[in-house]
C-alpha cells in the first residue's frame, strides 16, 4: 500500500475508534417503540418485573420487594463471575398500573455502582385499537456511540421477541446478527471492504482474504481461552473494517483469567505460524511457488497482526496481559517500554522505514490514550494473580512474541 493509502486507513480507524469508544456524548435517551397486537394487560404482566409473565424471556428469575418504597431485589439468569445468577437491586418510581413504570438500578453483584449512577429505564404501554403501542426507553451518560447503538438494537430485539411471544406464546433465543451465517457474511464483507486498500486485483483480494482469516483465527484463540476458563457460552462478532471481538459468557473472575484470555488470541496463532513456515518450505521444495508464496504471506500476516496486538496499548492484548502480571506502575512502565522498543526494533530489522516506525509508535500512543480507562469496573476486585502464574504468563508472553517475531522476519526475507 502507498503511504497515502496507509495514512488514510490508519486515520480512518483511529477516528472510528474514537467515535465508538471515547467521544463524550453526555446524557442521552435511547427510545424504541412497536405496536404489538396483544392486550395491554398481558404485555404489562410480561414487562412489569412483578408480573405473572415476568419470566417470559427467561431473563428474570425472580423479583422480591425489599421495602415499601419501591425497592426490589431482582435475580437475573445472566451468570456472574462465580457462575451464580446476577442479583440487582432496583428502585421503581412513577408506577402506573398497567401503563407505565420507571426503574433505576441501585447496584448489582456484577458491576461497580458507579456504572449505574446515571442509568434509568422506562416502559410505557398505550392502547391502540385492538393492539398496544409499547415504548421502551433507556437514559444514561455515554462516552462513545458503541454502547448507545448496542442498547438501541438490544431494545429493538426485545420488542420484536415480545411481539413473537405475544403471538405464539414462545420465546425464541438468539437472533440473525450473531448467527454463524451472518458472521460469515460479515467476514466476507470485511474482506471486500479491505480489497481496494491492497489493490483491485487478484493479489489484492488474496491479501484482504488472508488478513480477514488471520483476524478470525485470532478471535478463535480468545474463544478457546474463554471455554477453557469455564465460560459455558462464548461467541465471536465480526465487525467489518475494525476486525472482530470474542465475547465470554460471564464477567472475568481473576487477573490470571484476564491475562490468559488476552494472550491466547496471539497464542493460538503461535502454534500455527511454525506449521505455515514448514508448509511453505515444503511447497517451495516441491516446485509449487504460488502455494509457497501464499503460505508465506499467511504466516507473515499472522505474525505481523498478532505481534501488533501484543503492543502495550490499554485495550490491546499486550496491554491487558501486562496490567495483570506487573506488580506495580513502575514495573508496568518498564515492561511497556521494553515491549514497545522490541516491537519497533523488530520492525526496523524486518525492513520497515524509520518514518513508518515513528508513525506506528505515535499511532500506538494515540490508541492507548483513546482507550485508556474505557473498561467497565467490576463490583468486586478480581482475584489476585499468584506468583507462579505471573511468571508463567510472562514467559508465555515472551515466547509468543518471539515466535511471531521470527515469523515476521522469515516472511519478510521470503517475500522481498
Automatic annotation (TrEMBL):
Its cofactor is Zn(2+). This is Site-2 protease family protein. The keyword Transmembrane applies. InterPro entries: START-like_dom_sf. It comes from Mesorhizobium hawassense. The chain crosses the membrane at residues 6-27, 181-198, 204-222, 234-252, 258-278, 290-308, 328-348, 355-376, 391-411. One of its GO terms (molecular function) is metallopeptidase activity. Keywords: Hydrolase, Membrane, Metalloprotease, Protease, Transmembrane, Transmembrane helix, Zinc. The keyword Transmembrane applies. CDD domains: SRPBCC. Belongs to the peptidase M50B family. GO terms for biological process: proteolysis.
